[in-house]
TrEMBL record:
Residues 296-338 are annotated as: Disordered. This is Fatty acid hydroxylase domain-containing protein. The lineage of its organism: Eukaryota, Fungi, Dikarya, Ascomycota, Pezizomycotina. It comes from Penicillium olsonii. Residues 318-338 have a biased composition (Polar residues). GO terms for molecular function: iron ion binding; oxidoreductase activity. GO terms for cellular component: membrane. Residues 302-317 have a biased composition (Basic and acidic residues).
Length: 338
């Protein structure tokens, strides 16, 4: 873990943001920092600790803080929830957080950790076992700005296409076991809330989240810096798009993605299969007009009421059975005395 918090690694993220020097000096300091990082660590360590740092700073920590905000102060959180109380981790129950919500948060973080470990295994096999070049380019030479922009556009468009195709045809329009896993896990959520971006059965998660995210970087062999920026964009998108909040850093972009995620869950996966909506617009699978949102929200609330009624009935039945057993024992003991 020393590499994760060492000065060169942290400087890669902090110098462009916190420095007050001129652009030329900033670039010089950044290049010196990058060179120190690349020369003092193996490419595999640079890639893995860079990936962990981005995921930790831009997804895991903000999502955990938002999740705690939702469950500890639901009265304040519900004010900025797009779906009201339905968008809280505990739904209408607000403060009555069950083990299920904590399991969802735990599985989300576990899936994220699993994806990072799988990336490490793939890189280790390529470099050490098969003596191939690394899937992500870690080099002293920095990419030109136009190369970074080109790769980012290509990578994000490839991710959109892969996510749409896998999500729609493999997880919704098929009868495979993965479809059942996806519906039984992810589509049991009543609405997106913080940390739910990475929640799904591990197999369907790897198929629908890890592959569309990692494969474009392998296809276009991103430079490590390009890959870090690519991960930052995706991590920020996942953090806010699945938060359920109406307040976003960029209302122009993130709010639209967030409402698309809401509608995908509220309509039981009738549309909005891609994260940005480009493929949904092309193939006319966009859902989300105002009337449909109201109907879907009402339907979600009705499902929650039915689930509460079912749990209350089961609890009453167990209590009734518990009361019947002692009375039977007493009756048997009376008959024994006679």
């Amino acid at each position: 873990m020393d590499a994760l918090f060492c000065i060169p690694m942290l400087s890669v993220f902090l110098i462009p943001v916190l420095s007050s020097y001129s652009t030329t000096l900033n670039f010089l300091f950044f290049y010196m920092t990058w060179s120190t990082l690349v020369l003092s660590h193996t490419p595999l360590r640079v890639e893995m600790f860079g990936t962990i740092a981005v995921r930790l700073i831009f997804y895991a920590l903000p999502s955990i803080i938002m999740f705690l905000f939702d469950i500890l102060t639901p009265s304040a959180s519900v004010v900025i929830k797009a779906q009201g109380a339905t968008g809280l981790p505990g739904g209408k129950r607000r403060r009555n957080i069950r083990v299920r919500e904590l399991k969802i948060a735990g599985w989300s973080l576990l899936n994220l950790f699993m994806s990072i470990m799988l990336q490490w295994v793939i890189e280790a096999l390529c470099v050490k076992a098969f003596k191939m070049r690394s899937t992500v380019k870690v080099a002293l030479k920095l990419p030109m700005p136009y190369e970074m922009v080109r790769d980012l556009i290509l990578g994000l468009l490839a991710r959109e296409a892969l996510t749409y195709g896998i999500h729609r045809y493999a997880l919704h329009e098929s009868n495979s076991i993965l479809t059942k896993f996806h519906h039984f896990w992810y589509h049991q959520l009543h609405a997106p809330f913080p940390l739910s971006a990475h929640y799904d059965h591990p197999l369907t998660y790897l198929l629908s989240n890890f592959i569309p995210t990692y494969l474009p970087a392998v296809m276009f062999r991103f430079h490590m810096l390009t890959y870090l920026i690519y991960l930052v964009i995706i991590s920020v998108e996942e953090t806010f798009a699945y938060s359920g909040y109406t307040v976003m850093p960029t209302n122009f972009f993130l709010v639209g993605i967030a409402r698309r995620m809401d509608m995908h869950l509220l309509t039981y996966g009738e549309g909005n299969f891609g994260p940005w909506g480009i493929m949904d617009w092309i193939f006319k699978t966009t859902v989300g007009d105002a009337e449909l949102i109201d109907d879907a929200t009402d339907d979600a609330e009705e499902r929650e009421r039915e689930a509460r009624a079912k749990r209350a009935y089961e609890a009453a039945q167990k209590k009734s059975n518990a009361n019947v057993r002692p009375s039977k024992v007493q009756a048997q003991s009376v008959r024994g005395r006679r």
